[in-house]
Amino acid sequence: xxxxxxxxxxxxxxxxxxxxxxxxxxxxxxxxxxxxxxxxxxxxxxxxxxxxxxxxxxxxxxxxxxxxxxxxxxxxxxxxxxxxxxxxxxxxxxxxxxxxxxxxxxxxxxxxxxxxxxxxxxxxxxxxxxxxxxxxxxxxxxxxxxxxxxxxxxxxxxxxxxxxxxxxxxxxxxxxxxxxxxxxxxxxxxxxxxxxxxxxxxxxxxxxxxxxxxxxxxxxxxxxxxxxxxxxxxxxxxxxxxxxxxxxxxxxxxxxxxxxxxxxxxxxxxxxxxxxxxxxxxxxxxxxxxxxxxxxxxxxxxxxxxxxxxxxxxxxxxxxxxxxxxxxxxxxxxxxxxxxxxxxxxxxx
Amino acid sequence: xxxxxxxxxxxxxxxxxxxxxxxxxxxxxxxxxxxxxxxxxxxxxxxxxxxxxxxxxxxxxxxxxxxxxxxxxxxxxxxxxxxxxxxxxxxxxxxxxxxxxxxxxxxxxxxxxxxxxxxxxxxxxxxxxxxxxxxxxxxxxxxxxxxxxxxxxxxxxxxxxxxxxxxxxxxxxxxxxxxxxxxxxxxx
Lengths: 349, 188
Prior knowledge:
A: alpha+beta, Jelly Rolls, 4 domains, 9 helices, 38% helix, B: Arc Repressor Mutant, subunit A, 2 domains
């Protein structure tokens, strides 16, 4: 009975798509009745067959929009009670009193605030192709990679030192056990006492990555005010938070590769060409298009230092079965230029 | 354990918990109802009606089963009522992923959207790029095996072999959601 297994398996796609001859069809139907194991195998294959169409169907429904409708219905539900309307009348009568007392208290607090030191939020952005290094008011050193931005206060008050990152940055946090340092990177929060680590969290990517060089950091997420703690990272680990699954996966890595950009180096160690292209496009502010899936998955190894775009592409051409074409930037009607476009393709032999 | 915390949260009308449950299950409950009703807007109305009911009645509800079972069973009953009311007899699209044998079977193994997505993504990562491409052309773009063979200039048999390969991988990922009755059957 088991001898026919792989043969049957090969027929299943035809069976499930309905493109099988009557004879083969009958054969599978008979095989199904031979044992419960066969039937289970068949059922599971059918599930696998329909998994993607079902996911597709689910994605048609937008829970976010639906929740808005639900929320109005839930709040309407309450107003059916008679005493609500009495409360409303009372509220309207109270309104002038509230406004006046509100005005008084705001005036008082704003007077007090003027005496206190102002906390101003500021943002530093790094230009394309440049690494920016600066110190925060607590002595923390920050390296900001090309095309990234960090928002932070001019002085840290309260019991947390909080900053907000878009893009990639390396932090060397000044130790202060009474005032933990927290990086907000989209949904992910990275909390530390004093340590060095790298964070990659670009807007157009659906993940945030943390590489810990030394010390300890704690990862948690905050989505719609719901907090979730993932745990503590060990030095030498790289943790990736995926936005769709909202989970973190960690592994041991060679950290040098992830922090070499601070010294203006681009380091690739068996990275997929797709990721290589992504990093190059950020670094040089160009758009890189790969149309060939085979090239996308090509594992690449190289270190670039101070090379310009053409030099990097030429090195790529020499060291990999890859060719390139550059389309220069065009002037748009509004006076801006489009990004340079680079096409990567398979080298013709 | 986590289920219990969520149910307790629903019972005390905790809006954060309610929103979480709603976002987690809404799309899968709608897709599930589509099999009974087949009309997108009726389905959304039905599921939304249920959630308003859940919010209002939660403090008085005693949910004994798992939350997932409770939700899918409650929605199924509403769908059956709807069918009776509108004299619908036809079944629209039957996903085996959403099938039970008897009316009172467990709905424990049904998928929420994020769970299904995770299982699919996990198994796609295990496939070779070519295999993955073929599988996606088939299941995502709805191309027939013949059409895929022509598009990629390979034999139809190669296409079928690759798809059968993908099915094998995905099957293993989905296995933890094996219907309870099949397990009983297998052991018994």
